[in-house]
Specification:
mainly alpha; 267 residues; two-stranded antiparallel sheet
Length: 267
């Protein structure tokens, strides 16, 4: 089953006007919710540290960092904003996979979108597709993956961030496949760090890696073409209960962003 290729084709072929109005409405809710949570996250100590780190690191003024008066390069902006959005653990999540989907997808998408002046429709399309892809990957990895100690927001989330950026960049299908290969070999994140600043670091890390993966592919970097389903690929290595079929089930007709829960409390 060509899981990676079919996901890439879905990302490439789906446009804003293909997406149902209720799904677009939900994406706007997730967009606004993440911004509120991220702004609140700027008061955290982890925010102070990451803003200090990013400012000292420097880089081109390509994208904004929330809670600051400076811009940085797209990778560092995604890193910082990803951490801010998950710092309070107040951001939306998907119950079955426990993926904090907007927190990993939107910072990456926004950073690149700002740098190339993408439209609002482009951002929402990329967000919807990125969230759909990472949740589908999370479902394919199954409950065992999370119980074994992997942080699915990180391991599956990186696919969403990469998919979203690939859509913003309007990559061709073959480049999207490669971008997924580049991100897949970076898929990591352990639940042992829960309760520390390294949990929101996972969201920032995969946002940054999603940016890097798509940009490297755009420039011609190479990687595996069957990173999800291939021998020694994601499903073979990171879970004992892989499910390829659920990843592709109702692809293009069912959008998992509609299953995200908005938290009234950060618990």
């Amino acid at each position: 089953m060509e899981v990676t290729k079919k996901l890439a084709e879905f990302i490439h072929d789906t446009n804003f006007h293909d997406i149902p109005e209720n799904i677009v409405a939900k994406s706007k809710e997730c967009f606004l919710d993440w911004h509120g949570v991220a702004l609140a996250g700027t008061t955290e100590e982890s925010a102070r540290i990451i803003l200090e780190y990013v400012k000292e690191a420097g880089g081109k003024s390509q994208a904004s960092v929330l809670g600051s008066n400076f811009k940085t390069n797209v990778s560092n902006a995604a890193l910082a904003n990803g951490i801010l959005g998950h710092a309070l653990d107040f951001d939306d999540y998907h119950d079955d996979t426990v993926i904090h989907a907007t927190a990993v997808c939107l910072p990456a998408i926004l950073a690149v979108a700002e740098s190339i002046n993408s439209s609002g429709e482009d951002v929402l399309t990329a967000l919807i597709l990125g969230i759909d892809v990472c949740i589908r990957i999370g479902l394919g990895l199954g409950e065992y993956h999370y119980q074994r100690g992997w942080h699915t927001t990180s391991t599956a989330g990186i696919f969403g961030a990469t998919a979203g950026v690939a859509k913003i960049l309007n990559l061709e299908t073959d480049k999207i496949i490669t971008a997924l290969g580049i991100c897949g070999t970076q898929a990591s994140g352990l639940r042992q760090v829960f309760g520390t600043m390294s949990k929101p670091f996972h969201a920032g890390k995969v946002s940054m890696e999603g940016v890097i993966s798509a940009l490297l592919s755009q420039k011609g970097f190479t990687s595996a073409q069957q990173i999800v389903e291939g021998e020694l690929g994601l499903l073979e290595v990171l879970t004992d209960t892989p499910d390829e079929e659920i990843i592709l089930d109702q692809l293009g007709s069912k959008y998992y962003i509609n299953n995200l829960s908005i938290k009234p409390y950060p618990t």
